[in-house]
């Protein structure tokens, strides 16, 4: 029985993220601002879930503003956030902007959407 407990504990430790979770404000400058174009995947993946949720909604609004869209599909935002976090864990040196671009390309391909 103890062997199973030890094996389970070892698996749990191995499956934890390599990133330490910190508050998003850790990455702010002296004025409290975060440059969202420079936010790295390591930083994003290392924030607490509620901070990642906040940033995902912010990026969604930013991109929708650029597209002049006033709509938000909640499940899509959650799906993109999840995919970006997974991408970021595999590519910590990339920026979140690059991660979002990669995920958008992937989702367009899945949906058969071709850009002109």
Which key terms come to mind for this protein?
116 residues; mainly alpha; 5 helices
Give an overview in words.
17% of the residues are buried. This protein has helices spanning 2-15, 41-45, 49-66, 74-90, 96-111. The chain has one domain (20-111). With 116 residues, it is an all-alpha fold.
Provide a quick synopsis of the model.
The chain has 116 residues and is mainly alpha-helical. The chain has helices spanning 2-15, 41-45, 49-66, 74-90, 96-111.
Mean pLDDT equals: 84
Class by SSE composition: mainly alpha
Name the beta content range. Answer: under 5%
Q: Compute the separation of the termini in Å.
A: 61 Å
Number of domains: 1
* Radius of gyration computed on alpha carbons: 17 Å
The total count of strands amounts to: 0
Biggest beta-sheet profile: none
How many helices? The count is 5
H and E string: HHHHH
Regions with pLDDT < 50 over 5+ consecutive residues? Answer: 1-17
Taken from the alpha-carbon principal axes, the silhouette is globular
- Helical content stands at 55-70%
Please write out the topology.
Blueprint: H1 2-15, H2 41-45, H3 49-66, H4 74-90, H5 96-111
Helix pairs in contact: 3-4, 4-5
């Amino acid at each position: 029985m103890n062997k199973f407990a030890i094996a389970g504990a070892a698996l749990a430790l191995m499956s934890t993220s390599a990133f330490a979770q910190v508050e998003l404000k850790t990455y702010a400058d002296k004025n409290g601002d975060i440059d969202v174009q420079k936010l790295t995947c390591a930083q994003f993946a290392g924030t607490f879930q509620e901070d990642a949720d906040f940033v995902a909604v912010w990026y969604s609004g930013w991109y929708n503003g650029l597209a002049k869209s006033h709509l938000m599909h909640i499940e899509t935002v959650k799906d993109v956030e999840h995919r970006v976090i997974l991408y970021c864990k595999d590519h910590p040196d990339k920026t979140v902007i690059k991660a979002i671009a990669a995920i958008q390309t992937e989702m367009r391909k899945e949906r058969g959407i071709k850009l002109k």
